[in-house]
Structure formats: C-alpha cells, structure tokens
C-alpha cells in the first residue's frame, strides 16, 4: 500500500509565523484498515489529514459527500501498538480510532506525519490563537487558584477547538449537500414527475434544500454565539483572577 498514500508539504515565506505553520504542515491521505466492530472487524477506510483534522471516509469516491468521522489532532494522542507492528491508535478522550497499515513502513510514515503536525503546532501557537494563559507569581493560594483556572481554561479551549472543527466540517457538508440537491432538482424538472400512487408526490428537492440550509445556518449561528459567550466569560474570569492576585500581592507587601 506504499503507493496508496500521498503527502505534500507547502512552504510559505510569509512573515506571519502562524500562517507559515498552517501552510507548512504536511497533509496526508490514503487507505488504512479501521476497526469498526466485532461483526465487521477491520474495514478499509480512506483517511485524510488536512488543516489539523484527521477524517475518514468509506472510500475515496465518498470523500465529496462528507466524512464519517473526524478527530482534531491538536490534543490527540497517537500511540503505536505494543505487539502489532502494523497498528497504531489515534485517540482524544473516549474517542479512539484503531488503525492498521499494510506494512510497518506505511505505519511509520503515518505516525511520523501525524506526530510532526503536533510538533509543528506547539502549545504556544494554540494559546496565541485562543487567548493566553495567566502568569502567576509564587503565592501558594494564588498559584492554586491559577492552576485550577488554567486547567479549566485549557479544557474549555480544547472543547472549543473541537466544536470549531466540527463546525467547519458541517460547513463543507452543507455545501456538498446543496450541490447534490441542486442537481436532483434540475433532473426532477427535466423529467416527468413520478407517480407514487396513493396521492403521494415526489419530494420538492429545492424546497427541502432551502429548509435544510436555513436550519443548519441557524444551528451554526447559535453555535458561534455560544463560542463567543464562552470566550467572553473566560476573559472575564481571567481579569477577575488578575485583580485578585494583585490584591493579595499588595496585602502581603503591607504585612512585610
């Protein structure tokens, strides 16, 4: 399966370091075996790494109709199997993909590229994108509070990043389905309407497409609103903590 995967690496001379990281990140796609369940076992799936998201499709031909699943690599864990020399796992939280390459060389290539993505996107870049963490001095109580807040903040950023990833995937799927509905509507207009009997009429593809688009647009708008609220709350909490840290420092200095 050495010829079944493809990799390219675009290099940018931009002065924007974050843009350089995005453009220079290797992208990868090809077939791997993915564990489905105990009935169907291992099944070939078309795997795509793009824009920091690992997605899978039933086949390459199905890649135009939306992915079956996706994992953001920013916080994912990539682990080589202890005994199976062709298998590796990609997981984030409880979501685990069990993957097998055709041979150990293919497996190494996949793992190297996936790991290089995580290396090319250090935590500092993620923090710069989603807001910096709070720097605290060596005050026992303040440090404990800061550590707790940073853990919560880190968890929020991780979930927000996942939501943004799924939002982008949903955008792509909407566009794909819209094109599909438009083609069906055109074909439906060109052909004689089907007689389904019992007074049933064929589906109004154009109307259904418009309804679907408006519904999903509402979902995405609401989702973006939730993300904005979370970001505002996180910033508010950080400001409150900064004020509390400053207040404690001043109180300590007065008692010295």
How would you characterize the overall build of this protein?
A hairpin with a 6-residue loop joins strand 6 and strand 7. The model is unreliable at 1-26 and 122-145 (pLDDT under 50). The chain has helices at residues 17-24, 104-120, 123-130, 140-190, 205-254, and strands spanning 5-8, 27-37, 41-50, 53-57, 69-72, 77-80, 87-92, 95-100. It folds into two domains: 2-121, Roll (PH-domain like); 134-254. By secondary structure, it is α+β, with helices and mostly antiparallel strands. The longest helix has 51 residues, at 140-190. Helix 4 runs antiparallel to helix 5. It starts with a strand and ends with a helix. The protein contains five helices and eight strands. Strands 1, 2, 3, 4, 5, 6, 7 and 8 form an eight-stranded antiparallel beta sheet that branches.
């Amino acid at each position: 399966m050495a010829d079944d995967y493809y990799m390219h690496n675009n290099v940018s001379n931009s002065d924007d370091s974050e843009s350089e990281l995005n453009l220079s990140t290797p992208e990868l796609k090809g077939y791997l075996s993915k564990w489905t369940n105990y009935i169907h076992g291992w099944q070939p799936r078309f795997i795509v790494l793009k824009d920091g998201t690992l997605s899978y499709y039933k086949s390459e031909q199905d890649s135009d109709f939306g992915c079956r699943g996706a994992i953001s690599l920013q916080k994912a864990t990539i682990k080589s199997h202890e005994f199976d020399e062709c298998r590796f796992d990609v997981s984030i939280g409880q979501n685990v993909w069990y993957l097998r390459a055709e041979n150990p060389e293919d497996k190494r290539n996949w793992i190297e590229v996936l790991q290089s993505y995580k290396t090319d996107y250090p935590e500092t870049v993620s923090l710069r994108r989603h807001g910096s963490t709070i720097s605290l001095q060596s005050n026992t109580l303040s440090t404990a509070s800061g550590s707790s807040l940073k853990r919560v903040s880190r968890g929020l950023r991780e979930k927000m990043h996942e939501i943004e990833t799924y939002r982008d995937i949903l955008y792509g799927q909407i566009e794909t389905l819209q094109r599909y509905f438009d083609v069906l509507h055109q074909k439906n207009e060109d052909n004689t309407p089907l007689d389904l009997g019992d007074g049933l009429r064929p589906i109004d593809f154009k109307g259904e497409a418009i309804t679907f688009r408006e519904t999903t647009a509402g979902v995405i708008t609401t989702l973006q609103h939730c993300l904005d609220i979370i970001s505002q709350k996180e910033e508010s909490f950080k400001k409150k903590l900064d004020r509390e840290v400053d207040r404690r420092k001043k109180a300590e200095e007065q008692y010295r």
